[in-house]
């Protein structure tokens, strides 16, 4: 590597997902000198085509192949593109549940986190990304979930998404690259994609960022303030590489998720299906159920545990199949660690027996729901496990998912640098300022004090909005 | 060389490095299992092999090197059946894959799971599968 570039700014923001993009936007619009650094490339929101292998290789970190260590392992994905996870996720939106906010205030001594405190921030973000329900009827796979819930007298709801609809009902997906990032650029924020920040150093009252650009050259940035928003894995990794380790990377949490493929006698799937937005929250916060992207490659992947006979069903009848999931909130016990000479951190998450029991319970309930919706067979993600062909077989599912045969995944990671006033437990104060490090802030899901039990990006956006305005108020 | 048995090699193609040859043979074995008789999923599977190898190269360093070592171990395990894995006949390859898939060692199962997941993803991402499909009769 050779040093060839150097930049100076007042505020450097590392990472351009919802946390980083909103922070950069608000600070730039307030007239501050902001430089936004993003490791991934700048790509259009709908190119490559969403939910395809091409998208996975272009917009996901490590091609979408990331996994926590432990038994069972948990496969997870992170966006790595300008706009971060907002460019690749399904855009399902929830505000933080009030009981979660209350627990964070009580257990982690977080100030300014009541529903009333957050209301203006939620509202501003919802307007900016056009949180709205889809016009017209839901996809058939979502209707199946609703029918099954109704048959069991369970509550089911359509979750709003980040989508802008025109009068004819045609939708345009929203993301950071479609909303806050153009606003940031219009306000003078400089955006540097293809730039990976390697470490931070405090020198003479300013922060010095050392970054490597896509062509291999080194970029040195000097800034008075740094907001780190690299996500719940790479934010603590960067801080730990930079010597900031107190309560950093010790409390990672996630939403362990187990999937099941349902086969229906009637068609529920097609090339146009997209994201079914139905969720069942009857057993929240312990369990949530929903529908997943169910393209033929994802269906086949979900059926792989059941062998070639099962993937043959995808070949022959994928239009009759859809993927559903059961999710439970994890605990803040995961670890993010860096090792010398390894570019990527090691992530460990020990799935507890209690979580495996919750997931087994959730899998059983989900299977009951899908049979009530008319499914003719179900394929849970248990390696070598039998397909279920009638509701009576649900009782034979294990009471605790077996560690060696269970395929778990998650798309929700958080809580690796928790906020709060208890300096013995928290990495930052209530507004994201890293304890004991002047001018250093965290601005992403790392700030959570635990699992929210719902899609986390509403919380990420509201916290980033709140913390950026708090920073400006502090002068 | 039969496309159903190994990655096709033309006279102008240089010999595949051992790791790639093992990957190719493994992908051909796994893809053939899941392709059945669907024309859109028929061999050759060079596209599957290329995607699997590219995805493997994208792995984080902490996962990539153990996986490469395990893949070399898998290649050498073929010697118990007479030769390196990619030089074995199809039936012996399939038996070795099945043995590792059901091994008592988690690392062996993980290896097959990794390659099988990617091979299946790549196989079912072929555009012909969706285009050729018609809604089945109720």
Describe the structure.
The complex is a heterodimer of chains A (475) and B (138). Chain A is α+β, with helices and mostly antiparallel strands and 475 residues long. Chain A is 27% helix and 23% strand. In chain A, helix 1 runs parallel beside helix 6 and helix 8 packs antiparallel against helix 9. Chain A is globular and about 70 Å long. The two termini of chain A are 38 Å apart. With 138 residues, chain B is mainly α. In chain B, 62% of the residues lie in helices and 0% in strands. Chain B has 6 helices and no strands. In chain B, helix 1 packs across helix 2, helix 1 crosses helix 4 and helix 1 packs across helix 5. The longest helix of chain B has 19 residues. The chains are: A alpha+beta (475), B mainly alpha (138). At the A-B interface, helix 8 and helix 9 of A face helix 2, helix 3 and helix 5 of B.
Structural class determined from secondary elements of chain B? mainly alpha
> End-to-end distance of chain A, in Å?
38 Å
CATH architecture of the largest domain in chain A: 3-Layer(bba) Sandwich
Instruction: Count structural domains of chain A.
Output: 2
Q: Count every helix of chain B, treating DSSP H or I runs of 4 or more residues as helices.
A: 6
């Amino acid at each position: 590597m050779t040093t060839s570039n150097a930049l100076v700014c007042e505020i450097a923001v590392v990472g351009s997902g919802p946390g980083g993009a909103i922070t950069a936007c608000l600070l730039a619009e307030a007239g501050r000198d902001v430089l936004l650094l993003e490791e991934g490339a700048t790509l259009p929101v709908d190119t490559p085509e969403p939910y395809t292998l091409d998208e996975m290789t272009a917009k996901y970190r490590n091609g979408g192949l990331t996994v926590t260590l432990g038994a069972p392992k948990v496969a997870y994905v992170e966006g790595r593109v300008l706009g971060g996870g907002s460019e690749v996720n399904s855009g399902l939106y929830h505000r933080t549940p009030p009981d979660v906010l209350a627990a964070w205030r009580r257990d982690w001594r977080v100030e300014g986190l009541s529903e009333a405190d957050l209301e203006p921030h939620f509202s501003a973000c919802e307007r900016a990304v056009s949180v709205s329900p889809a016009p017209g009827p839901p996809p058939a796979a979502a209707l199946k979930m609703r029918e099954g819930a109704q048959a069991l007298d369970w509550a089911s709801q359509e979750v709003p998404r980040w989508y802008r609809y025109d009068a004819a009902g045609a939708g345009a997906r929203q993301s950071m690259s479609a909303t806050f990032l153009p606003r940031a650029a219009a306000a003078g924020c400089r955006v540097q994609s293809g730039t990976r920040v390697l470490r931070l150093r405090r020198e003479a009252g300013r922060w010095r960022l050392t970054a490597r650009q896509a062509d291999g050259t080194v970029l040195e940035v000097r800034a008075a303030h740094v907001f780190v928003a690299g996500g719940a894995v790479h934010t603590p990794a960067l801080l730990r590489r930079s010597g900031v380790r107190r309560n950093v990377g010790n409390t990672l949490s996630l939403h362990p998720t187990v999937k099941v493929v349902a086969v229906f006698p009637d068609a529920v799937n097609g090339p146009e299906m997209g994201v079914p937005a139905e969720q069942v929250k009857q057993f929240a916060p312990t369990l949530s159920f929903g529908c997943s992207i169910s393209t033929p490659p994802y269906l086949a992947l979900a059926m792989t545990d059941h062998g070639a006979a099962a993937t043959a069903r995808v070949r022959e009848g994928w239009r009759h199949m859809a993927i559903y999931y059961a999710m439970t909130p994890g605990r803040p016990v995961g670890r993010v660690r860096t090792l010398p000479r390894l570019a990527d951190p090691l992530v460990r998450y020990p799935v507890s027996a209690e979580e495996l029991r919750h997931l087994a319970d959730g899998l059983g309930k989900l299977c009951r729901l899908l049979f009530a919706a008319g499914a003719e067979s179900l394929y849970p993600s248990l390696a070598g496990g039998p397909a279920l062909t009638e509701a009576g077989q649900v009782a034979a599912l294990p009471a605790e998912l077996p560690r060696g045969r269970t395929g778990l995944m998650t798309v929700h990671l958080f809580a690796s640098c928790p906020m709060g006033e208890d300096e013995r437990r928290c990495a930052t104060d209530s507004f994201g300022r890293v304890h004991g490090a002047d001018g250093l802030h965290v601005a992403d899901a790392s700030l959570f004090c635990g699992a929210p039990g719902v899609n986390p990006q509403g919380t990420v956006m509201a916290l980033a909005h709140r913390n950026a305005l708090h920073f400006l108020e502090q002068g | 060389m039969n496309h159903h048995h190994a990655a096709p090699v033309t006279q102008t193609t240089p010999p595949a490095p051992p790791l790639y040859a093992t990957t190719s043979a493994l992908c051909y074995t796994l893809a053939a299992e899941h392709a059945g008789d669907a024309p859109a999923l028929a061999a050759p599977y060079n596209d599957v092999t290329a995607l699997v190898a590219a995805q493997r190269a994208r792995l984080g360093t902490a996962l990539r090197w153990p996986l490469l070592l395990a893949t070399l171990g898998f290649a050498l395990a073929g010697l118990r059946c007479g030769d390196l894995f990619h030089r074995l006949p199809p039936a012996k390859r399939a038996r070795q894959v099945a043995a590792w898939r059901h091994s008592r060692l988690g690392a062996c199962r993980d290896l097959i799971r990794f390659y099988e997941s990617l091979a299946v993803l790549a196989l079912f991402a072929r555009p012909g599968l969706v285009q050729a499909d018609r809604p089945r009769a109720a």
